[in-house]
Task: inverse folding
């Protein structure tokens, strides 16, 4: 009997999501994605690509081929520090940093990001604070982040934190804007709008055209 | 010309010394900065990861407030020192001008808050203002303690000159170099001036983040620099506050002061350490400064 060889690594056509590329390309300026020549300049420029599970060039190829699950659950998108090296150097003007933001947003909406990995948690906590107060308070952002990812880390960072407190560089006082209501009504209008269209929205838009 | 100052969240917290030194130095140069009333978060990196539209709306509210505060004048010149805020606001500024559909949505949102944006804002970095708006001799005229013999590495970081800024070169920016030379300092040839410091990864994915900072520090040390100057609160924090941890992890003792370019300017102008936030540092620059003053130790 054959030994079990693990989950199959190849993908069949039916496993792929043909709408994925259009979904990502629906961001402003996203249509440049279709003109990628796979030259690898982005991966060469990226200071973090050696630590990624897929390089930026591979991510583009995978988006275009429809590897939705692999792309959205990869670490690559959460390791991107948004330094824009790839965007500046791309010979086809692909805004790769914006594409990384798009995959981050889709991963969060689909809840497929790596669990307890701190970058998506940080983004979530930052978003909540700004939505409520209009500003971010660095001390609370860090406390909430550690509580949700690795509470023991609070102790490891304690020395650094205390030193910052003593220098007046961290404070527990909440930063907030005065007219929170004004900001709330602005953001409320955008509640239902997404810049990256979801798969269902794309499919139904396609049907309308047909 | 009058300027509206947009601090951003970091300059009120870990980057307080940047705010203190910026305001002191601009005051000495007789360029008043007036803080934007009720400013909100720029919609930085982390916000962009959740909702791009809301991030643009946050920037747009700041623009609308700046126009209102500016009154009848043609353009509100908004001075943004934090590199991440500068990028975020600049990006929103450009996208709102280039993508009418996006603009229409954002206008609708602003209207719900009783605000309106009329494209009468310029997003400016302090380096841009210092080099392009001021008379060339104005900075030189104020120098009381020239930085003779001080070897300085100018660190611009990633988000300041990439990808939307047009006041400096994206590959080999020069504005900070020019300022250091005006102050009498020597600029070290250091090709990593726009390489990423690791951003927020230094705190949360340390295996990756700290190495990126280490690469910058090790190269600066190899090239014999006495001091690194920067224009970004996160870069300053990463390169300075993690230095002892980085020395431990990579077995390479590094002890280089990392300060804001505005602090260096203020020091050369002869202003006090308190006013420049120079007491809020982990690695004291006093040894480097005394080198510039002929080896006499002047800081306690």
Result:
């Amino acid at each position: 009997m054959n030994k079990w060889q693990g989950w199959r690594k190849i993908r069949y056509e039916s496993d792929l999501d043909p709408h994925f590329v259009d979904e990502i390309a629906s961001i402003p300026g996203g249509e440049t994605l279709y003109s990628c020549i796979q030259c690898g300049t982005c991966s060469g420029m990226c200071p973090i690509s050696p630590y990624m599970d897929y390089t930026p060039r591979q991510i583009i190829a995978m988006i275009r081929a429809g590897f939705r699950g692999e792309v959205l659950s990869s670490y690559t998108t959460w390791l991107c520090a948004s330094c824009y090296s790839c965007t500046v150097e791309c010979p086809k003007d692909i805004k790769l940093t914006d594409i990384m933001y798009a995959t981050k947003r889709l991963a969060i909406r689909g809840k497929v990001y790596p669990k307890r990995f701190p970058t998506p948690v940080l983004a979530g906590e930052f978003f909540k604070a700004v939505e409520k107060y209009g500003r971010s308070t660095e001390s609370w952002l860090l406390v909430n982040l550690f509580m949700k990812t690795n509470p023991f880390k609070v102790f490891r960072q304690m020395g650094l934190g205390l030193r910052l407190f003593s220098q007046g560089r961290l404070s527990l006082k909440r930063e907030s804007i005065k007219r929170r209501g004004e900001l709330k009504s602005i953001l409320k209008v955008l509640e239902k709008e997404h810049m990256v269209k979801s798969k269902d929205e794309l499919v139904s838009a396609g049907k309308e055209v047909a | 010309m009058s300027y509206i100052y947009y601090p951003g969240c970091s300059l009120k917290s870990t980057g307080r010394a940047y705010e203190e030194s910026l305001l002191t130095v601009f005051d000495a140069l007789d360029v008043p900065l007036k803080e934007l009333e009720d400013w909100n978060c720029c919609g930085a990196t982390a916000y962009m990861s959740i909702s791009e539209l809301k991030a643009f709306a946050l920037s747009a509210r700041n623009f609308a407030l700046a126009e209102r505060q500016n009154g009848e004048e043609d353009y509100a010149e908004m001075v943004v020192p934090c590199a991440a805020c500068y990028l975020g606001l600049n990006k929103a500024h450009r996208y709102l001008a280039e993508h009418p559909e996006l603009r229409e949505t954002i206008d609708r949102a602003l209207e719900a808050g009783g605000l309106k944006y009329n494209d009468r804002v310029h997003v400016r970095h302090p380096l841009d203002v210092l080099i392009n708006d001021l008379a060339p001799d104005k900075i030189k005229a104020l120098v009381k303690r020239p930085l003779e013999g001080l070897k300085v590495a100018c660190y611009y970081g990633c988000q300041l000159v990439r990808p939307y800024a047009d006041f400096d070169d994206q590959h080999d920016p020069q504005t900070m170099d020019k300022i250091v030379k005006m102050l009498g300092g020597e600029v070290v040839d250091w090709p990593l001036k726009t390489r990423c410091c690791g951003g927020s990864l230094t705190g949360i994915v340390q295996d990756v983040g700290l190495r990126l900072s280490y690469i910058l520090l090790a190269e600066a040390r190899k090239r014999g620099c006495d001091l690194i100057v920067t224009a970004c609160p996160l870069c300053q924090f990463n390169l300075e506050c993690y230095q002892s941890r980085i020395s431990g992890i990579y077995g390479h003792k590094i002890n280089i002061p990392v300060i804001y370019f505005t602090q260096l300017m203020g020091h050369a102008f002869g202003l006090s350490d308190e006013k420049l936030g120079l007491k809020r540092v982990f690695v004291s620059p006093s040894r480097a400064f005394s080198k510039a003053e002929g080896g006499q130790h002047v800081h306690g």
Summary: Chain B has 14 helices and eight strands.
